Amino acid sequence: MSLHTPRKKPRIYFDEDGGPRRPHPIHSSPLQKQREQLPIAKGREALVREIRQNDVTILLGETGSGKTTQVPQYVLEAGLAGKGMIAVTQPRRVAATSLAARVAAEQGVKVGELVGYSVRFDDTCGIDTKIKYVSDGMLVRELLSDPLLSRYSVIVLDEAHERTLRTDFLIANLKTIQAKRKETTDAKGKGKAPASGINPLKIIVMSATLDAEKFSRFYNNAKILYVKGRQHPVKIFHTAVGQTDYVDSTLRTFFQIHIDQPPGDVLVFLPGQEDIESLEKSIKTYARRLPESCMNVLVYPMYASLPPSLQARIFSATPSMSRKCILATNIAETSITIPGIKFVIDTGKCKEKRYLSRDTGGGFDTLLTRDITKTSAMQRAGRAGREGPGFCFRLYTEEAFNGLGTAAEPEIRRCSLTQSVLELKCLGQDLETVEFMDPPDINSVVAALKALWILGALDNSKALTPIGRQMASFPVEPYLARIILASNTHGCTSEVIDIVSLISSSSNLFLDISDQRDAIADARSKFRHPSGDHLTMLNALRAYQEMAETESKGSRRDWCRQRFLNERTFTEALKIRDQLRLTCQRVKLDWKASKKDSEESVLRSFTTGLVQNSALLQPDGTYKQLMGHSVVKIHPGSTLADKKVPAIIFDELIYTSHIYARGVSSVPRGYFSGATPTLPNGS
Ligand code: CDP
Ligand code: MG
Question: Is the ipTM of this complex over 0.95?
C-alpha cells in the first residue's frame, strides 16, 4: 500500500464563516484514512485537551507514530492557533520541505497555501499559511527581526532530542518569550487574549527518545505525554568480524539481500553525501549485470541538501518486481519515515559537526565521520519494523555495538558558537548569561567572542558594533557577511556576492575526481585565474551565465559536465544571490558596485573575512596557519595545488590524511596588516 497518494483531481475550495480559507477535509480519501490509522490518532482528543490546558507540552513518541505530520493539523483543526500561525521547527532542511509537502497533500492544498515551509534561501509561505515547517536556523533568524515571534501562537520544537545548537537556542529563548508574552497579555486582558496585540504562546516540544524529563524540568516540570508506536519485531544481525570498508561491505550486503530475500525495500544508513553518491553509482552498475529474473533495483539518495524535486519519489510506492534502495544519512533515523522498508543496513557511522579548537590546530567546525551511539543504532534498526517484521544488518560486530556510546553530546557543547553569540548580541543577550539546558563550554564562548572581535563585529568591551549588527542581517555565516561588507569599501560587491553565493551553495562547484585531475585542469583552463579558486569560481560563473543565455537545458548540462562543474551549484547560487542582493538593498548597500579590474579589491575583501583562515609559507615549503599552529596543505583539487605562494586564504579546512585547505587564493602578505583590530594594552 502506498502511503503517499498523489491528488488526482483539484479540490474544490469553500470559504468558511470568518475563518481562513480552507478546503473541507474529505474523510473518505486514502490520505485521510492513513491519517486516522496512525498511532497518534487514538490519542487525538486527549492531546488537544492537554495542549489547550497547558502552556508547554512535551510529547514523546516513537518515530513514525505521526507526531510531526499530525500534531500541527490537530492544533489547527481544534482552533488552538487562533489568528496566529503554527511553526514546526526541523533541524534539517530536507525534513522541513518534505514534511510540508506531505501535510499539504493531507490538507488537499498546494505547498505555500495553508501549509508551507521556510528554509534558508527558500521560503514558500504566503498570506494564507497557517502551518509552517521551518528549519530551526530560520526561526532563530526570524527572532532577530521579531524578538517576541509575535506572528506565531503555537511553536512546535520538533526533533528536540537531536539537541542541535539552533533548537537549544530556541528552547532557551522561547522560555523567556513565553513569559514576556504572558505579561503583555495579562496586563492587557487579565488572562484573556486581547483583541489586538500579542497572543499568549503555546510551546510543544516533541522528541523521539526517552530524554523527555530534561525538557520537562527545563520548562518548570511541564507535562509529558507519550504516544505508543506500532513496532514490529526486527531481527538484528551483526557481522562476524569487523569491516574495514563500509561502502564495499554495504554493496555486498545489499546484493545478498536483493538476491536471497523476498520483496521489501532497503534503507541504508551512511555517514555522508560523498559515500551516498559513490555507492549509488556502484549499485546501479552491478544491478545492470544481474540476470533478467532478478527484481529491478531503484536507488534513491536522501541527504540534507537534496533538492525538493528529487524527494517525492522516495515516498512513492515501489512498482511491482522492483526493490527500492534508499541511501540515507542519519536524516532517516527519526526526522522522516519512509514507507515500505523491510531491511536496514547500518554502517554504524555518521557525520558529526565538531569544533576543533585552535589549541589542537583548528579554530573551526569540521564534519568528522564517527561511530554512532547505541540510541542511534536502535533507532536505525527500528526503521525496518514499521509495517511488519523486518531485518537489520549491522556492518559491525556485536562486541562493537556493546562498546558504542549511549547518547550524543549536544551541539552546544561541541560546535562553533560564533554565529549564536552574534545573534544573541543582536537580541541584547550574552551567551554567558542565557539559561540553556546545557551551558556551553567557556572556551568555545571565548573563541567565538574572539572571532567576532577579529571580524570587527564586537568592540574591545565585547559590545556589538554597527558592523556586527549589519553582519547579522545576512543569512550567511559571520565571516561571509564580513566579506560582503568589506566589498562595499572596496567597490566590488557585485563580484563578491557572486563568489559568496557559490561558496554558500550546498554542494561544491568544482567536482574533484582524484584520478582525473589533469583532465580537469585542462577542461577548466579557459577560466582558471592565477590568484586561485575564488576568482576562478567567479570566471566559471560568468562563463556559465554567458553560455546559458543562448543554450538549451541539455547543452548547459553537457557544458558543465565537460568542465567537471556541478550545475546544481550554479542554479542554487543564483537563487542565493537574489537573496543576498535583497539583503544588501535592505541594509542600504549597493550590490551593483563592480570593478573592471577587480582582483585586488575582491581578494582584499576576502582577506578581511578570512584572516582566521589563512596560512603563511614557511622556509621549509609548508604552510602554517597565521592564527593557530597547524601545518596545512593546499587541497589537490585546488587550482593552486602544488604552488608555493607567500600567503594563502581559504574557505575551509578538511581533515583526511592531512589537514587540507579548500577554496584557496593566494594573497600578498601585506593584505593582512590592518585586517585585525588591536587590543588595548593589557587585555
Ligand atoms: O513525527 P513522527 O516520526 O512521529 O511521524 P510522522 O513524520 O508524522 O510520520 C507519520 C506518517 O506519515 C509515516 O507513516 C510516514 O510514512 C508518513 N509520511 C509520508 O508518507 N511522507 C512524508 N513526506 C512524511 C511522512
Ligand atoms: Mg517526526
Answer: yes
